[in-house]
């Protein structure tokens, strides 16, 4: 049985949630500006020797490279997060992301150094992926273990609200950049958002160094319960939950298709929408998501994680058909409304609840490893979903129906995973991950 953890000091749950929000926003600002650049800029800067369709395919493949690196990063960062604590990993990942993103803005183009340019781009993207592998898992573990037992869904959702905030900020930064004249955009304009990321390392360090370690992890350290090989314990005692998280994490394909492939499709010659108008769709959808995520998470504290997650996964499979159809019509008002509904409202149900849903499957001893490894393998598939979508869309890149069908198929494993998972919303924090833990004890009175 897990060691009972003392209550968090007054105000600490709020501090942990705020640090998770700000840190994730800064971290994922870096991560998502790459997505916009991969769809709009990099085909002309790093892959300009190819025809436009091939250049776009190669550029989107570099977007997926980070997702391939994330499972490797998850193995190492998950291990050390469960060995030395959540706080150290949160600081390390933020600094690594800031530095690697800044370096992307300094890279020479293919016209300047030839084939070395895309190689350097991929190397920096790998570092971004390693950083992202530990960011969400460490921030989620930190907030979950600090949160009052009956509000874990709400507090852990701050990590994903921060992710959406970072995506919103990245989109807003790219709107004026994308409006620059073509020659300025391709020479120096695209570099500015990447250079701005150097502030990530400074701000992230200041914010996160003041956090205290979680009561649950501190209790394990005090009693010698910290395991030497978290991965071995994870695979021995929680292998089914790891597989369940991998399957559930495929729902992230909705996000990558929405933010990257749909953007490239809408601005292609076959549709002809402007870069700025489509970036505004993404910005407004993310703004709505900022409000929707904590609301869905709060609902999950009342009715459970599984029903809310199922709404997001199954609903996204349907609404992505409507969104991509709207793009094919070229009707901007229709694209705007359905973009907000798809990504801002429906997908936010799954996005807002998964931090608590996944984290509650594991004990404190292996929580960070379980979340990191499970999510990052699933996210790796989601990252390359963009590349597969570009191939599925055909030589002209306009077969939106096949892409929508592909996205819906990727939502099936998350639905199955949710149906087979235990409901954990009302389980006491110290009993999470135990096979004999009660599923619905009386609500505990805890002062946040």
TrEMBL record:
Q: Which UniProt keywords apply?
A: Cell membrane, Membrane, Transmembrane, Transmembrane helix, Transport
Q: Major facilitator superfamily (MFS) profile domain spans which residues?
A: 16-426
| Protein name per Swiss-Prot or TrEMBL | MFS transporter
Q: Which PANTHER family match?
A: SHIKIMATE TRANSPORTER
Q: Where in the cell is it found?
A: Cell membrane
Q: Where is the composition biased (Basic and acidic residues)?
A: 428-442
Identify the InterPro entries for this entry: MFS_dom, MFS_sugar_transport-like, MFS_trans_sf
């Amino acid at each position: 049985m897990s060691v009972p953890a003392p209550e968090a000091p007054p105000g600490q749950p709020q501090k942990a949630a705020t640090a998770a929000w700000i840190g994730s926003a800064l971290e994922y600002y870096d991560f998502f500006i790459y997505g916009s650049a991969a769809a709009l800029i990099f085909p002309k800067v790093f892959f300009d020797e190819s025809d436009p369709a091939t250049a776009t395919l190669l550029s989107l493949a570099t977007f997926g490279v980070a997702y391939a690196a994330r499972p490797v990063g998850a193995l190492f960062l998950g291990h050390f997060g469960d060995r030395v604590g959540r706080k150290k990993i949160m600081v390390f990942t933020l600094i690594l992301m800031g530095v690697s993103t800044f370096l992307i803005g300094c890279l020479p183009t293919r016209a300047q150094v030839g084939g070395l340019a895309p190689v350097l781009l991929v190397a920096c993207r790998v570092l971004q992926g390693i950083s992202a592998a530990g960011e969400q898992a460490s921030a989620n573990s930190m907030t979950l273990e600090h949160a009052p037992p009956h509000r874990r869904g709400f507090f852990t959702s701050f990590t994903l609200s921060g992710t959406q905030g970072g995506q919103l900020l990245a989109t807003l930064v790219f709107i004026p950049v994308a409006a620059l004249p073509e020659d300025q955009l391709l020479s120096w304009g695209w570099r500015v958002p990447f250079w701005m990321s150097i502030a990530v390392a400074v701000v992230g360090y200041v914010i996160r160094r003041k956090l205290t370690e979680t009561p649950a992890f501190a209790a394990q350290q005090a009693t010698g319960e910290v395991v030497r090989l978290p991965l071995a314990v994870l695979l021995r005692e929680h292998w089914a939950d790891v597989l369940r998280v991998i399957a559930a994490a495929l729902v992230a394909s909705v996000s990558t298709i929405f933010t990257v492939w749909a953007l490239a499709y809408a601005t292609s010659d076959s549709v002809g929408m402007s870069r700025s108008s489509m970036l505004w769709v993404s910005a407004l959808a993310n703004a709505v998501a900022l409000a929707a995520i904590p609301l869905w998470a709060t609902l999950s504290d009342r009715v459970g994680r599984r029903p809310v997650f199922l709404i997001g996964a199954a609903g996204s499979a349907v609404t992505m058909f409507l969104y991509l159809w709207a793009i094919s019509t070229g009707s901007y008002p229709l694209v705007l409304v359905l973009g907000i509904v798809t990504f801002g409202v429906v997908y936010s149900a799954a996005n807002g609840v998964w931090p608590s849903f996944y984290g509650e499957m594991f004990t404190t001893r292996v929580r960070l490893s379980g979340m990191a490894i499970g999510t990052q393998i699933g996210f790796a598939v989601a990252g390359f979903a963009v590349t597969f979508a570009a191939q599925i869309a055909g030589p002209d890149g306009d077969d939106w129906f096949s892409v929508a069908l592909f996205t819906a198929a990727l939502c099936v494993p998350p639905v199955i995973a949710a149906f087979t998972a235990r409901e954990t919303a009302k389980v006491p924090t110290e009993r999470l991950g135990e096979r004999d833990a009660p599923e619905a004890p009386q609500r505990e009175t805890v002062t946040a």
